[in-house]
Amino acid sequence: MLSHLDSDPMEDSLFLVTLGPRLPSFVRKLACWIAKTFLGDSLFPRFFSLAREKSVLEFTDFTDQRIRSATYLSVLAAATITYNVINSPGGTIPVTRINSDTDNLSTDFVVGASGRSKMFETRMYLGKNPVYDPKAMEGIPIGVQLVGKKWEDEKVLAMMHVVDAALGLRGFGPGSWEPIKTVSI
To answer: Which residue spans within 99-140 are E strands per DSSP?
Structure first.
């Protein structure tokens, strides 16, 4: 997994990501159990337990799942892909978060009434497993993307600063991170 680095040093932040696959499974399972049982962390074990070598069957199942999702959702990335292809600098600024109380479809929503694709809107908003589900997506950030001309990265960063300042405090974004408060028992 790291063979392409040759003599280049590995980024420190990749230590845990690359450690999992190198550990024997019983050590990885023990580390997950310790993190969950004694540290009360259920998120770390969930991801660390997956950081292991995969069988060919697991890999193909994962790839098939990604392809099925991408079949319907690739159109969502069209704007971003366009700017990547023409090598334009871009940045995203968080504006708000999805709120299941206010971000539901309006009661008068009609598929295709906006002039957009009926097939796309049906897959996005309706059916048994819609892509956009405000209850399942509660709290996910919503942002705006700013894009500039090729080689004008600094201008994009400056404009991002202007937009961020204009939006004001939003409870998240640059400078608003707070450590998780733990409760002692």
So the answer is: none
Q: What is the pLDDT of residues 104-136, one digit of tens each?
A: 888 888 888 877 777 778 878 887 778 888 888
CA dihedral 30, 31, 36, 38 (to 10 degrees): 90
**CA dist 24 to 30, 51, 72, Å?**
10, 11, 38
- The answer to whether the beta carbons of residues 32 and 49 sit under 8 Å apart is yes
> SS3 of 147, please?
strand
Read off φ and ψ for residue 38, nearest 5 degrees.
-95, -30
Neighbours of 47 (CB within 10 A): 12
Per-residue pLDDT of 145-185, as tens digits, reads 999 999 999 999 999 999 999 988 877 665 565 555 555 55
pTM of the model: 0.50
Report the distance separating Cα 23 and Cα 29, nearest Å: 10
Tokens of 2: 């790291």
